[in-house]
Amino acid sequence: MKLARLNGKAEIFYSIQGEGKNIGRPSIFIRTSLCNLHCSWCDTDYTWNWKGTPFHHQNEALPGYQKFDKAEYIAELSIEGIACEVVALGCKNIVLTGGEPLLQQTDLLDLIRHLRNIDPGYWFEIETNGTIIPSAKFDVLIDQYNVSPKLANSGNTQRIREKEDAYNFFSSNAKAVFKFVVNTPEDMEEVFRLIRKYEINHNKVYLMPEGTSAETLKQKQQWLIEQCKEHHFHYTDRLHIHIYGNKRGV
């Protein structure tokens, strides 16, 4: 399986879930590499912003920023190797994240089966941009979908970020919740459009401010919380940013 590489090894780490429905829950994160979208504010751009690609990222404005060497930032690891690291960390809550994990759902299916054969108590949630429909076999085994539909603020065209069949699948799936990354009040018009079009239950909606620093998040909290109160959405912060800062592997 292709995972993100951190400090010379696959990015598998034990932390807390910092976002969404299970915020604060101790969890093991398995970060896959590769993505079919290219969000300009993405904080895991080392999973897709390869040298020679035309994609734009806001960090390009920072001194010294360079696109990533694909060979250096992908770690190949077997299902057995991943499972060994997970078991050693001793937590049963697993977050499959990325990149876009569903690009490798066949391998992830094998990983879920392998770990559940070791211990049926493993629980799996997956972070996805909602553009890929899971297979029926995968859907049976996953416990929760954290769907994050990308808005225009991501820099992706509507054609590649909004896949109607996939959105309809997730909106009707009892295991799916929706997390919208909101940057400005103007973004809410698009959030409302998607909720109406795909009949997303308000109780499944989480609004999260875009930002990779505590200061940036705090600037957007008040008005975003008011939106949640008015429309009966959930507010979710980025707890890991407040605790650890914008760091990898925590």
From TrEMBL:
Domain Radical SAM core: 22-246
Known catalytic reactions: 6-carboxy-5,6,7,8-tetrahydropterin + H(+) = 7-carboxy-7-carbaguanine + NH4(+)
Record protein name field: 7-carboxy-7-deazaguanine synthase
Protein task: Catalyzes the complex heterocyclic radical-mediated conversion of 6-carboxy-5,6,7,8-tetrahydropterin (CPH4) to 7-carboxy-7-deazaguanine (CDG), a step common to the biosynthetic pathways of all 7-deazapurine-containing compounds.
Record family assignment: Belongs to the radical SAM superfamily. 7-carboxy-7-deazaguanine synthase family.
Record-linked CDD domains: Radical_SAM
Pathway stated in the Swiss-Prot or TrEMBL entry: Purine metabolism; 7-cyano-7-deazaguanine biosynthesis
A GO term, aspect molecular function: carbon-nitrogen lyase activity
A Pfam family per the record: Radical_SAM
Keyword Iron-sulfur: yes
Record gene name: queE
